[in-house]
Structure formats: structure tokens, C-alpha cells
Amino acid sequence: MATSNFAFLHTEWPALQAEALRAEQAALADPRTACFYARRSLELAVTWLFQAEGGRGGSLRMPYQPDLSAYLFEPTFKALVGPALHAKMDVVRKLGNHAAHSTKAMGTQDGVAAVRELFHVMYWLARTYSRNVAARPDAAVQFRVEWLRQDVVAPNAPDAPTPPAVSSKAEALAQEQLAILAQELAARDKALAAERQKTDAQDIEIAALRAAVAAAKPLNVAVADTHDYNEAQTRDLFIDVLLKEAGWALADARDREFEVSGMPNGQAKGYVDYVLWGDDGKPVAVVEAKRTQRDAHAGQQQAKLYADCLEAQFGQRPLIYYTNGYEHWLWDDLRYPPRAVQGFYKKDELQLQIQRRNSLRPLANVTINPAIVERHYQLRAIRRVGETFEKDRQRKALLVMATGAGKTRTVIALVDVLMRANVVKRVLFLADRVALVNQAVNAFKVHLPDASAVNL
Predict the structure, then answer these.
(1) What is the per-residue pLDDT across 306-318, written as a single tens digit (0 to 9) for each?
(2) Nearest CA to 35 among 19, 51, 49?
(3) pTM for the whole thing?
(4) Residue 233's pLDDT is what?
(5) Strands 319-323 and 283-289
(6) Is the Cα dihedral 178, 183, 186, 192 positive or negative?
(7) 35-82 tens-digit pLDDT
(8) What is the pLDDT of residue 279?
(9) 129 alpha-carbon distance from chain centroid
(10) What is the pLDDT of residue 286?
């Protein structure tokens, strides 16, 4: 067999190795299939972790449902693996989901990235949980991209379906086939898990596994982990994946490391990690990426300086993102303080934020409809919310009103003001009982008949 990056799994995790080799085999020839099998390998590894570290006295708590996303974002699991390794796992998950559910083309860089991040995850698993000291990988084991050859033969796992053949002319068909394959594998795994739960032998086997892990783990972690997990590369990859999910192709040379001039403190030039451009060729956002180990806020001032330079050059101030790869913050410093976000806006969403800077009407100048509210405290409440948004530059406001004070009417009048000022386009009104929702819908239809209220 040709050399593999996952050879260290053979002794104790042969089933994981089989799936990882499928990903490795396809990395260059068929990136979509590689990403699919990388995700599947990750799912099997994480499931094993919950078996080994779960149960009574274990460090992992079972999530609300047994799927990869729920496993990864269970708080005890995130605490176990740490933010840097968790980011790698989430990248593999996202690339695998894209492979199975998106018709957009996937390039060789996607397949290589998925296998590389999977390698780091599997290395951590093996060095932390190996029950055989001789089989534990050492720091000299590094990912070798030259081993991603098309002649690497992956052994067939028992009863594993054969991955579909893919050509560049049949990308959509390949995605459809992988989606079907994913359903077949999920159904098979579910059936196997249900069958195992019926046997006492399985309980004995899991108990033995947990005992072995409990004994081996302290010995493994006592040895310093000097492996280079290449966190900076993972951070950049994760940001790329999130940006591409939002529709940013990052195909233009000026999208990355864009040179700006006029930096303070004697720095004549600077290089912006990412610049997102609008249809008019002007910047709509900058993204500043800091090291994974550092607080994302460390990039806030740097990103602001880049925004200053871009505004001076193009006459338009972009929105500001700063991130360390797993914490992301969005800052429209002309309107609101920074806030934590899960990803990036699409182009039309960013352009709308820029456009609203000129289309907004001052809330203080918008007349409150007296046909909706007329009590003095209702008028004061609406004006105070407006001051919170404009003067205090906050994104949240809380009104506490007694029963019978006209809360629904106050909100309807506030919504009317916000819509006429072009501050909001759609509003979600929540209530804790169905009867109250129905009552509010009827009130909106009476007082704002042009707002097209929809009862969800």
C-alpha cells in the first residue's frame, strides 16, 4: 500500500483509517468526495469520543440529538477539545456539508484542506487516547501533501457503499449521489447503533473502553504535545469557508492582502487581510484576522485604521470585521458598537448597510401616528427608544410596561416610525401564547394595514 498520512490509526482505529483513506484517496481527483468522507471520518471519531468520555462520571454530556453538529457544539465537548481544534472540526463539517448539499463546484484546494484538517484532528485523537504507547504518534508525524496521490488505495470498510465516480461535467449529479450516499450511511449507522443497544455485550465493551481510556489518557497527556497543528492555516481556511458560504468567491487578487497607504505611527503602507468589494468597485467591508490564540478584539484597532485608509482612498467607509478564526465581530463604527456574529454578510446585505447610511431619516423628525398611540408615556417611550438607537448608538432597547398600559399599540407605533425612517424593513413580533399572537396580528392589521402582517 502507498504511504498514507493516516497510517498511525491502523493499530487501534482501523475503521477510522478506512474512512480517512477514502478522503485521502479522493483529495486530488475528486474533492467533493474527499470532503464528504472527511466529514464522515470526523463524525465517526466524534461518536467514538462520546462513547469513550461519556456516561456516568465521564467528561462529555450527551447532546439533545446524536448528530455531528449537536456533538460539536455541546459545551462539554468544546471545553474538551479547545477552540483551536474545534475550529478544525467545524471546517471539516462545513466542507462536508457543502459537498453533500451544495451544487457549487469544489476545487482541489477544498479536498486538500479537508484532509489536512482531518489529519490534525486524528493526530490529536491518537496521541491523546491511544491505549498502546507504541502506537501513539510523535511530533515528527506531520501532514505530507505529496502523499495525496491518486494511486493511494483505500481499504473497503465492511458493507461500505462504493463512492460515486465524478467528472467535472457532472458536478450536480455527483452532489446528488453524495446526498443519497449520506442518507444511506446515516441509516446504516443508526440501524447498527440500535442493534448494539440491545446487547449486554455492547455495554460491557463500552465500559471496558472507558476504563482503558481513563487509564491511558493521563499517561498520554503527561507527554508534552509539540505537534504543529498549524492554527494560522486553519484560521485562514475557516474564514475562507465562511466567506464563501456568504457568496464571496475571493477570486480577485485584491480580495486578500490589499495594500493601503497612509497608516499612522510611521507606517507608510499596510496590508488588509481581506477586503470585500461592492458592485461599484468600492469597499463594503474589511476583515482583520488575528492569531487563534489571541483575543479577536486585538484586531479591532488595526481594522479601524485599515477602514480609515480605504475610506480616504475610495470615498466610502467599509464595515469592519475582526476575527481570530472562531470568534467574529462586526462593527459599523458610524452607527453601532461591535457585536459578536456567526459569519459574514452577503454582498447585497453589506451594500444595504452602506446605503442605509444615506437613506435613514432621523427618528426624532418622524411624526408618531396619533391614531395609534396618544398617551404621554407611550410617546415618551417611543422617543426614548429612538434616542437609544441614534444618540446612544445602541442596538437594543427594553420597555417595561404594566398590564393595560398599551404595550402592543406602543410597539405598533414604534414599528411604524422605524419603517418610515428606513431603519427596518421587516419586524418579528413574539408573544408567549398563541392567543396573544392572534391578538397582536389583528392589532397590526387595524393600525398598520399596509405592513402585511403574517401570522407564523
Answers:
(1) 999 999 999 999 9
(2) 19
(3) 0.70
(4) 82
(5) parallel
(6) negative
(7) 999 999 999 999 999 988 887 767 899 888 888 999 999 999 999 999
(8) 94
(9) 27
(10) 95
Task: Please write the tens of the pLDDT for every residue from 154-181.
Answer: 444 334 444 444 444 455 556 677 777 7
Residue type, 294: R
Estimate to the nearest angstrom the gap between the alpha carbon of 321 and the chain centroid. 15
Q: Is 224 helix (H, G, I), strand (E, B) or coil?
A: coil
What phi, psi does 258 have (nearest 5°)?
Answer: -75, 130
Residue carrying C-alpha cell 494560522:
232
What Rg value do the Cα atoms of the chain yield, rounded? 27
Q: State the chain's mean pLDDT as an integer.
A: 86
Among 413, 414, 408, CA closest to 440? 408
CA-to-CA dists, residue 102 to 95, 170, 172, 244, 262, angstroms = 10, 13, 8, 12, 42
Give the per-residue pLDDT at 1: 44
Helix (H, G, I), strand (E, B) or coil at 329: strand
How confident is residue 293, by pLDDT bands cut at 50, 70 and 90? low
Calpha distance 200→56 (Å, rounded):
17
Give the mean pLDDT of 246-272: 86
Helices (H), 222-375: 231-245, 300-314, 347-359
Q: 446-449 long-range CB contacts below 8 Å, 24 or more apart?
A: 447/369, 447/371, 447/372, 447/409, 447/412, 447/413, 447/416, 448/372, 448/412, 448/415, 448/416
The CA distance from 382 to 410, in Å, is: 7
Task: Please tell me the predicted confidence (pLDDT) of residue 292.
Answer: 61
Determine which helix (DSSP H) or strand (DSSP E) holds 25, and give its type and residue range: helix 14-26
Backbone torsions φ then ψ of 275, nearest 5 degrees: -125, 130
- Cite the beta strand spans of 137-280 per DSSP E: 256-261, 269-277
Cα–Cα dist 416/309, whole Å: 38
DSSP 355-377: HHHHHPPPGGGSPP-TTT---HH
